[in-house]
């Protein structure tokens, strides 16, 4: 669950809805720099489904007593989180082994960035290294070996689409630049490595319900929606989070993605 507090309400977004939005971004990404087309459909599937392990879990969110707020993807306990990571990767692998390899690398990066340290994480990382080695061997045996340039490009694409979707989830449209989440103050990580950026990092700025990006990574402007629930804090406390969440109507937040020159961070 993506969760933030605003105006005495918890703004809550399902992880898989966020993932589906990331997949839409990937499908619209300018593709002239893609090093190959062989796995394009599998890459799009992987990006859209990279958080599918959370589908069942997000139907009934959990309350964090210490934080006096719902658990989010940031502070969710390690052991169950890894269980759902594995579950999601197993489900993706039934559809696309390359997609599972790509998402496994993505999760490993997220763990490294989080700085978490637990014995369970060590076991998980070892298991996933074995998964990726097995998939590499299987693809090679089938004459479909993956080049490092291909894998690196797809990893960057997944990271950017994930980050852009998360950016929308962590802000209300129109958020002033000074209030942008710290993760994105200096733009989207690693995007300066895409050839079309000329080494510049992609940055974002709200103009009402329009989100301007520079350099622009898509071929045209377009509108997206993200389902959101605004759960009143007093309801979550008095009735319990699960009951308050289930009775809160889901509403779509619409955002127009467009090109615009921005002040560089």
Helix fraction by DSSP (H/I, runs of at least 4): 40-55%
Following the backbone from N to C, one meets helices and strands in this order, namely EEHHEEHHHHEEEHHE
Overall pLDDT level:
93
- Rg, rounded, reads 19 Å
Tell me the overall shape. Answer: globular
Low-confidence stretches: none
Distance between the amino and carboxyl termini:
29 Å
Q: Structural class of the secondary elements?
A: alpha+beta
Total count of helical runs of at least 4 residues = 8
- Summarize the biggest pleated sheet: 6 strands, mixed
* Beta strands, count: 8
Number of domains: 1
Strand order of the largest sheet: 1-2-7-8-6-5
InterPro entries: DUF3891
Protein name: DUF3891 domain-containing protein
Organism: Paenibacillus sabinae T27
Pfam families: DUF3891
Question: What can you tell me about this protein's structure?
Answer:
With 265 residues, the chain is α+β, with helices and mostly antiparallel strands. The protein is 45% helix and 17% strand. It contains eight helices and eight strands, in the order ββααββααααβββααβ. The radius of gyration is 19 Å and the shape is globular. 34% of the residues are buried. The mean pLDDT is 93.
